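Open question from group meeting: does this chain pack into something compact, or does most of it stay loose? Before anyone orders reagents, we agreed to write out a predicted structure and look at it together. Recording both the input and the output here so the notebook holds the full record.
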Amino acid sequence: MTLAELGWTDTLAQAFAPHTAPGVEPARVVVELRRHYYAVQTATGEFLGELTGKFHHAADREAQAYPAVGDWVVVQPSSDGRHAQIHALLPRRTRFSRQAAGEAQVEQIVAANIDTVFLVSGLDANYNPKRIQRFFVAARDSGAQPVIILNKSDLCPDPEVVRKEIELLVPGVPVLITSTHTRKGLKSLAETYALPGRTLAFVGSSGAGKSTIINRLLKDSEAMPTGEVREKDGKGRHTTTRRELMATPTGALVIDTPGMREFQLWDSKEAVEDAYPDVVGIALRCRFTNCHHNAEPGCAIRVALASGELPAARLESYRKLKAEQVAKTPKQRKPSAHASSPGWRNKSAGAQPFRHRQHRED
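Structure tokens returned:
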């Protein structure tokens, strides 16, 4: 593949210019292997990349410095034609992050340099509006275009009712209805989003159907493993165990991610405000700057609720996320893991997967 087919741009070329040297070339991270090891794709081939010692030590001191799938890096292939040293990380255009599992607050970058990020939610027991709200905030904060996919529409008596409910919670975000069983909506998804040079990331809980949708885009039923879903609770096994970037026949690049049963927001202080500009904007019209939007005179929020300008479900969604944000115990931030104020206004107004099948995660 050419660099352009991998998503190379003039902006990236300018960022790479200071690193220009004999034997050095740009590469895109296409698979995350074990720590400090990656599969990287250059214009001349695919290599098993390893961070240099200097890069590794610098990354330990600076947040978000380790590469993630979708990142562009500076590499120097070795003479054996199979390995490469990774010397530097080029600036990211977008990044989709979440808080890594565990007690410490550690950012986990799910995918980088993506154009569109899809949340796949099954219209079965997997359906969870609260998860969709968190995704919406994280996606808006990532810089990528968020799209919600309501999959398994064949299992829902009236998927249009659910679509309207979600559109009310996340206005302006496309909500697609699909079924990998009947193939409903998949052609439209491919024609609208799987365009040449575009990078798409799919996230969601296990069993929602991410890998099956990707297989349809790749036109390869075995490209990504899929698994059965428990009928009782709609949960599936983690059939995807690592992040991986692949090319579709249309020239788009797709990233599948391991299932996320829990999605904790990373650094949500401003992200929540940015995701709910309508609520924040209406609150600015309140008579008192410390209005709690309960019984205070001149409360614009209560007026907007009464007139229908602000849907009650939208306000409730905002309040829940703000409450989660306030309830978080302040912790010491740590650098990025490989792989706030309670007030209402803290801001001014035939695909070929790129895979080393011989390399497996430890």
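Observations to bring back to the group:
The mean pLDDT is 79.
The first strand starts at residue 25 and ends at 32.
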